[in-house]
Amino acid sequence: MFSKCDSPNNNTPCLLRSGLEIAQYVINGISLEKEMENFSKADFIEEECRYSKDRKTFEIIKGKAKVLDAVERFARTILLMNPSESVFPRCDKCFGVKLTKEVYDSIHDGPFPLSGSGKTIRRSVEYCPECEEEPRGGIIKQDPADDEDLRIIRSGLDNKL
Ligand SMILES: [Zn+2]
Fold first, then answer.
1. Rounded to the nearest whole angstrom, what is the distance from the C-alpha of residue 100 to the centroid of ligand 1?
2. The pTM is what?
3. Is it the case that residue 38 has pLDDT exceeding 60?
4. Is the residue at 117 inside a domain?
5. What is the DSSP string of 32-97?
6. Which one of 42, 65, 70, 137 is CB 3.0 to 4.6 Å from 51, fit for a cystine?
7. What's the domain range around 123?
8. Whole-number Å distance between alpha carbons of 142 and 107
9. Total structural domains in the chain?
10. What are the beta bridge partners of residue 126?
11. Do residue 29 and residue 65 come from a single domain?
């Protein structure tokens, strides 16, 4: 069934083979979530990959979200799990896999523009690479940690009043 993937003339990564490997690990007791997380770090994740819905006609797909989607669908099909479900969040609009990106916000809490402590905050943002722009960090006026400190101080005062 997978003989086409072994063609020596084609170095394009085959997602059917990856899906099969993932399914085998899951059968051996590793969770699909863990396997997909590992696969999302594969060195070819941003490259052109081969995939086939019917295992006869192969198509080239590219893009991390699409590659993850195709591999997980195939692994789920082998495992007799619902292929429409995903360990990743799905986009409401295109039903594609959403990715998570770490962005850094700079805190400019000083009195003048671009002044302040120069601290940055890292946060994870989920986005759909098909429907949304890749998220970037921004500039924020106040450190959310300071907000949290103020809230605790205020709630302490409320209790005393
Ligand atoms: Zn989308």
1. 13
2. 0.73
3. yes
4. yes
5. HHHHHHHHTT-TTTTS-EEE-SSSSS-EEE-SHHHHHHHHHHHHHHHTTS-TT--SS-B-TTT-PB
6. 70
7. 89-142
8. 6
9. 2
10. 100
11. yes
